[in-house]
Write a structure and sequence with these properties.
The chain has 133 residues and is mainly α. It contains six helices and two strands.
Amino acid sequence: MSPYKTGEAAAKAGVHKETIRYYERRNLIPEPARRRSGYRIFTDEHIDRINFIKRAQELGFTLSEIEDLLTLRVDGYTTCADVRQRAETKLWDVEEKITELQRIREALQHLTDLCQGEGPTSQCPILDAMEGS
């Protein structure tokens, strides 16, 4: 277990120093020990936690949801079913977002099909449609 200063830990985890500070403030990573000089000392455990957070974010989990997952990880009464339930909820959220994005894409496609890209903006069918005209 190597000790890292904030900048070193950030580089090793592939995040900015401010990200680490933010995770600390949110209590997403354990409070690091300090050197006599006051510098925080991060360990491989911190790096692993940051990587967990990053991977969870890539899957669409918010920091609040990640905090919940981290709590489940250390709760002796939590089962894989509890974690699965949260993943299924996130999957449902993602599917809803995909449906909404597809609806938006279709609407934008329709609007761009209406517009020839010529004439003044006062006669733009895209702007007219947004105004409800």
